[in-house]
Amino acid sequence: MINLAVIGTNWISEKFVEAAKDSNQFTLSAVYSRQIESADGFAKEHQAPDCNFYNNLEELGADKRVDAVYIASPNSLHCEQAILMMEHGKHVICEKPLASNIDEVTRMYSVAEKYNVVLFEAFKTEFLPNFEELKMSLASIGKVRSVHLSYCQYSSRYQKYLNGENPNTFNPLYSNGSIMDIGFYSVSTAVSLFGKPDKIQASAKLLDSGVDAHGTVILEYPNFIVSVQHSKVSDGNIASEIQGEDGVILIQDFSECTGFTIHKREVSPQTIHVEQEDNSMIYEAIAFAEQVRDGAMNYAYVQRSLEVSEVITEIRKQTGVIFPADK
């Protein structure tokens, strides 16, 4: 079993720890929180009586029992915390986005190579069984000509922002906003399916805080265009689609990708669905565990992570979203 530590005790950490336990690859061995009581409570909730808990990151890094660390802190802290853990010889799985910009991401992977540890971005969509089916089904619709990826979801924190509370979700100090959250799924899905685009055109509407509330991105490839629609201030209810010369694939929710439907001319629609675990984070946990056991990073994952960060950094440059990390 891989001895796992967790940085952050929020809802996403809860889901990942449950997924990690269900994968039968990990044991929860340590928890970090700024409040020691929160770390202690998290360990007890997950029935980890032998778990150590910390409110000091240096002490966590020095814990010899810990093999790997899951980081679910605010985006702006990912780089610093991941590097500290890797310098202590820990493998790191870090929530998406891996860092604030491409410079930080590049530096993080350099540190991973220097200390011979695994650094892995937790982008779950790429590892879902139905997403694998989607990749294999692309050939069935012929040459791809147009793609539309829509992910718009009204944030539960938006009312707090409107009330003047300025939560992390809409605060540039934490490297946040729509493209860094909702939009990340769309960009990463495009890059995972088609690689890095040749050209990027982006527009967005910014909140007074300085982050984007919603936006549109055009990713140009040699023979087709991917249009991305993302929002954290409105709900969307339209399917995403991949149009080919011989048919179209409709995906209702590509981030969870529980299935999709292929429509071809003069042929009855074909729905593709394979069984997936309810906690979809289990597949990224398994992918991380495989790399840790192999003692090496999968460079296809590294390349996708670098390309996505490069694309999103360029999107923010075009839309005027600036973080302290950029300076």
Structure characteristics:
327 residues; 14 strands; Rossmann fold; Dihydrodipicolinate Reductase, domain 2; 34% helix; Gfo/Idh/MocA family oxidoreductase; alpha/beta; Gfo/Idh/MocA-like_OxRdtase_N; 25% strand; 2 domains; globular; 10 helices; 6-stranded parallel sheet; 8-stranded mixed sheet; NAD(P)-bd_dom_sf
Describe this structure in words.
The chain has 327 residues and is an alpha/beta fold. The protein folds into two domains: 2-120, NAD(P)-binding Rossmann-like Domain (Rossmann fold, 3-Layer(aba) Sandwich); 126-280 and 310-326, Dihydrodipicolinate Reductase, domain 2, CATH 3.30.360.10. It has helices at residues 11-22, 36-45, 57-61, 78-87, 102-114, 129-137, 158-162, 182-194, 282-294, 299-319, and strands at 2-7, 26-32, 52-54, 68-71, 91-95, 119-122, 144-152, 199-206, 212-220, 225-231, 240-244, 247-251, 260-264, 267-272. The strands form two sheets. An eight-stranded mixed β-sheet has the order 8-9-10-7-11-12-13-14. The chain has a six-stranded parallel β-sheet with strand order 3-2-1-4-5-6, with helices on both faces. Helix 4 (78-87) packs parallel to helix 5 (102-114). The protein starts with a strand and ends in an 8-residue tail after the last helix. 46% of the residues are buried.
Work out the helicity level.
25-40%
Radius of gyration: 20 Å
Q: What is the C-level CATH assignment of the largest domain?
A: Alpha Beta
Helix vs. strand class: alpha/beta
The CATH architecture of the largest domain is 2-Layer Sandwich
Quick one: CATH superfamily of the largest domain? Dihydrodipicolinate Reductase, domain 2
H/E element order: EHEHEHEHEHEHEHHEEEEEEEHH
On the 0-100 scale, what is the average pLDDT? 96
Number of helices: 10
Could you say what the CATH topology of the largest domain is called? Dihydrodipicolinate Reductase, domain 2
